[in-house]
Design a protein that fits this description.
Elements: H1 2-18, H2 24-49, H3 52-69, H4 76-98, H5 114-126, H6 129-140, H7 145-152, H8 156-175
Helix pairs in contact: 1-2, 1-3, 2-3, 2-4, 3-4, 6-8, 7-8
Length: about 180
Amino acid sequence: MLFTELFNSVQRFINERLFKTQKEGDRTDFDAIIEEYGDMVYRIALSHTLDRQYSEDVFQEVFLKLFKNQHKIKDEQHLKHWLIRTAINMSISHNRRVKQVESNIDECADYEDEASFRELKLITEELPDKFRSVILLCLFEGYTEKEAAKILHIREGTIKSRLYRARQLLKKALEE
Protein backbone atom coordinates (compact mmCIF):
# COMPACT_ATOMS: atom_id res chain seq x y z
CA MET A 1 0.00 0.00 0.00
CA LEU A 2 1.42 3.34 -1.07
CA PHE A 3 0.47 5.28 2.04
CA THR A 4 2.16 2.70 4.29
CA GLU A 5 5.38 2.99 2.29
CA LEU A 6 5.32 6.79 2.60
CA PHE A 7 4.56 6.62 6.31
CA ASN A 8 7.41 4.17 6.88
CA SER A 9 9.81 6.28 4.83
CA VAL A 10 9.09 9.46 6.79
CA GLN A 11 9.07 7.58 10.09
CA ARG A 12 12.41 5.93 9.33
CA PHE A 13 14.03 9.26 8.45
CA ILE A 14 12.70 10.90 11.59
CA ASN A 15 13.81 8.02 13.77
CA GLU A 16 17.31 7.92 12.29
CA ARG A 17 18.08 11.62 12.02
CA LEU A 18 15.75 13.91 13.87
CA PHE A 19 14.69 12.13 17.03
CA LYS A 20 18.16 11.83 18.50
CA THR A 21 17.36 14.74 20.82
CA GLN A 22 13.64 14.05 21.33
CA LYS A 23 11.90 12.06 24.05
CA GLU A 24 10.27 8.70 23.28
CA GLY A 25 6.78 10.12 23.98
CA ASP A 26 7.24 12.75 21.26
CA ARG A 27 7.94 10.01 18.70
CA THR A 28 4.63 8.28 19.46
CA ASP A 29 2.74 11.59 19.13
CA PHE A 30 4.35 12.34 15.78
CA ASP A 31 3.62 8.83 14.48
CA ALA A 32 -0.04 9.31 15.42
CA ILE A 33 -0.16 12.65 13.57
CA ILE A 34 1.24 11.08 10.41
CA GLU A 35 -1.18 8.19 10.69
CA GLU A 36 -4.20 10.47 11.22
CA TYR A 37 -3.48 13.18 8.65
CA GLY A 38 -1.15 11.47 6.18
CA ASP A 39 -3.85 10.34 3.77
CA MET A 40 -5.37 13.83 3.67
CA VAL A 41 -1.98 15.43 2.97
CA TYR A 42 -1.28 12.91 0.21
CA ARG A 43 -4.69 13.54 -1.45
CA ILE A 44 -4.12 17.28 -1.37
CA ALA A 45 -0.66 16.91 -2.88
CA LEU A 46 -1.94 14.50 -5.53
CA SER A 47 -4.80 16.80 -6.49
CA HIS A 48 -2.38 19.69 -7.02
CA THR A 49 0.61 17.96 -8.57
CA LEU A 50 -1.34 15.33 -10.54
CA ASP A 51 1.65 13.03 -10.22
CA ARG A 52 2.24 10.26 -7.72
CA GLN A 53 5.98 10.74 -7.40
CA TYR A 54 5.69 14.49 -6.85
CA SER A 55 2.89 13.90 -4.35
CA GLU A 56 5.14 11.58 -2.37
CA ASP A 57 7.84 14.27 -2.31
CA VAL A 58 5.37 16.89 -1.09
CA PHE A 59 4.02 14.45 1.52
CA GLN A 60 7.49 13.93 2.96
CA GLU A 61 8.37 17.63 2.82
CA VAL A 62 5.18 18.58 4.68
CA PHE A 63 5.81 16.21 7.57
CA LEU A 64 9.48 17.10 7.81
CA LYS A 65 8.51 20.76 7.93
CA LEU A 66 5.94 19.94 10.61
CA PHE A 67 8.59 18.21 12.66
CA LYS A 68 10.87 21.23 12.44
CA ASN A 69 8.05 23.67 13.26
CA GLN A 70 5.98 21.63 15.72
CA HIS A 71 6.62 24.16 18.50
CA LYS A 72 4.51 26.70 16.55
CA ILE A 73 1.39 24.52 16.49
CA LYS A 74 -1.18 25.68 19.07
CA ASP A 75 -3.80 22.92 19.04
CA GLU A 76 -5.24 20.12 16.91
CA GLN A 77 -7.45 22.43 14.82
CA HIS A 78 -4.45 24.66 14.10
CA LEU A 79 -2.43 21.55 13.20
CA LYS A 80 -4.98 20.39 10.63
CA HIS A 81 -5.24 23.85 9.05
CA TRP A 82 -1.44 24.16 9.03
CA LEU A 83 -1.06 20.78 7.31
CA ILE A 84 -3.64 21.65 4.64
CA ARG A 85 -2.20 25.09 3.95
CA THR A 86 1.39 23.75 3.90
CA ALA A 87 0.46 20.88 1.57
CA ILE A 88 -1.28 23.26 -0.84
CA ASN A 89 1.58 25.77 -0.77
CA MET A 90 4.28 23.14 -1.23
CA SER A 91 2.35 21.54 -4.09
CA ILE A 92 1.94 24.86 -5.86
CA SER A 93 5.61 25.69 -5.30
CA HIS A 94 6.58 22.31 -6.66
CA ASN A 95 4.48 22.89 -9.78
CA ARG A 96 6.18 26.22 -10.33
CA ARG A 97 9.61 24.61 -10.07
CA VAL A 98 8.76 21.76 -12.38
CA LYS A 99 6.89 24.04 -14.87
CA GLN A 100 5.23 21.16 -16.66
CA VAL A 101 3.67 18.35 -14.66
CA GLU A 102 3.16 15.10 -16.53
CA SER A 103 0.62 12.68 -15.18
CA ASN A 104 0.19 9.13 -16.39
CA ILE A 105 -2.91 7.45 -15.01
CA ASP A 106 -1.43 3.99 -15.56
CA GLU A 107 1.42 4.90 -13.23
CA CYS A 108 -1.16 5.66 -10.55
CA ALA A 109 -3.04 2.38 -10.91
CA ASP A 110 -2.19 1.36 -7.36
CA TYR A 111 -4.06 4.35 -5.92
CA GLU A 112 -6.68 2.91 -3.56
CA ASP A 113 -9.73 3.83 -5.62
CA GLU A 114 -8.89 4.31 -9.29
CA ALA A 115 -12.35 5.67 -10.13
CA SER A 116 -11.99 8.37 -7.46
CA PHE A 117 -8.53 9.20 -8.74
CA ARG A 118 -9.81 9.58 -12.30
CA GLU A 119 -12.57 11.87 -11.09
CA LEU A 120 -10.14 13.86 -8.98
CA LYS A 121 -7.68 14.10 -11.86
CA LEU A 122 -10.38 15.30 -14.24
CA ILE A 123 -11.54 17.98 -11.85
CA THR A 124 -8.15 19.27 -10.76
CA GLU A 125 -6.35 19.35 -14.08
CA GLU A 126 -9.02 21.56 -15.62
CA LEU A 127 -8.94 24.25 -12.92
CA PRO A 128 -6.50 27.02 -12.02
CA ASP A 129 -4.86 26.69 -8.58
CA LYS A 130 -7.14 29.19 -6.84
CA PHE A 131 -10.24 27.19 -7.87
CA ARG A 132 -8.58 23.84 -7.32
CA SER A 133 -7.83 24.64 -3.66
CA VAL A 134 -11.42 25.69 -2.95
CA ILE A 135 -12.92 22.65 -4.71
CA LEU A 136 -10.55 20.33 -2.87
CA LEU A 137 -11.37 21.75 0.57
CA CYS A 138 -15.13 22.19 0.17
CA LEU A 139 -16.08 19.23 -2.00
CA PHE A 140 -13.47 16.56 -1.34
CA GLU A 141 -12.38 17.29 2.22
CA GLY A 142 -15.85 18.38 3.42
CA TYR A 143 -15.00 21.79 4.84
CA THR A 144 -17.63 24.50 5.03
CA GLU A 145 -17.08 27.71 3.11
CA LYS A 146 -16.32 29.49 6.38
CA GLU A 147 -13.69 26.88 7.37
CA ALA A 148 -12.11 26.98 3.90
CA ALA A 149 -11.89 30.77 4.10
CA LYS A 150 -10.07 30.51 7.41
CA ILE A 151 -7.64 27.89 6.09
CA LEU A 152 -6.85 29.79 2.87
CA HIS A 153 -6.77 33.18 4.61
CA ILE A 154 -9.34 34.73 2.28
CA ARG A 155 -12.87 36.04 2.78
CA GLU A 156 -15.85 33.72 2.82
CA GLY A 157 -17.39 35.66 -0.07
CA THR A 158 -14.29 34.92 -2.13
CA ILE A 159 -14.69 31.22 -1.37
CA LYS A 160 -18.32 31.31 -2.48
CA SER A 161 -17.51 33.09 -5.74
CA ARG A 162 -14.60 30.74 -6.49
CA LEU A 163 -16.81 27.72 -5.84
CA TYR A 164 -19.45 29.12 -8.15
CA ARG A 165 -16.91 29.91 -10.86
CA ALA A 166 -15.19 26.52 -10.48
CA ARG A 167 -18.51 24.72 -10.84
CA GLN A 168 -19.24 26.72 -13.99
CA LEU A 169 -15.84 25.83 -15.44
CA LEU A 170 -16.35 22.15 -14.63
CA LYS A 171 -19.82 22.11 -16.11
CA LYS A 172 -18.51 23.74 -19.27
CA ALA A 173 -15.61 21.27 -19.50
CA LEU A 174 -17.92 18.29 -19.02
CA GLU A 175 -20.32 19.52 -21.72
CA GLU A 176 -17.51 19.68 -24.30
